Amino acid sequence: MITLLLLLAPETFTHRVTGLFSAAREADLREAVKRIPELELLSIEFDRGEAKFKYDPAIFFKGVKEKDYVERFNNLLRQASSHTFGIRAMGDVSWDKLTLVEIPVAGLDCRACELSVYEILYRIDGVEQATASFKEGRVTARVDASKTSRDALKDALKKRNVTLRAP
Known about the structure:
By secondary structure, this protein is α+β, with helices and mostly antiparallel strands. 28% of the residues lie in helices and 28% in strands. It has 2 domains: 11-88, Alpha-Beta Plaits (2-Layer Sandwich), CATH 3.30.70.100; 95-164, 2-Layer Sandwich (Alpha-Beta Plaits). It has helices spanning 26-34, 57-60, 69-80, 111-122, 150-159, and strands at 11-18, 40-45, 50-55, 86-88, 99-106, 127-133, 138-143, 163-164. A 4-stranded antiparallel sheet has the order 2-3-1-4. Strands 6-7-5-8 form a 4-stranded antiparallel sheet. A hairpin with a 4-residue loop joins strand 2 (40-45) and strand 3 (50-55). The chain is globular.
């Protein structure tokens, strides 16, 4: 009797990363990933809010149904990062079809403020990627225009008492 041993090699996967609201957060993401066994961070594409990871799904998601992979990965990354990073499924709209929205803001004076404003935007259906910068005094979002608009983003910010500046 011959027994075949199949060695599954880790594969490369691209995932959307939540919490990646400024380029300065890349180092924080790298540190969080180090806390997760069986996971390697290969690259970060800040402008798209995406990262490439290397892992073996059979090991990384052992005992998890395939439909629950993103949720499981999200929970692991949130725990490893004190709930400042997460994973989302890749968007359905191609990058070149997304609309860039820039909104000048005032009053952001630290990274915690940036995170708060970023989370306001990122939770809106149709926002595929967002940034917030207190140094630049603006927030940006790449949006699916069939699901949301500049006005909807501005309204969400105003409801949370974010001061908008004139362009």
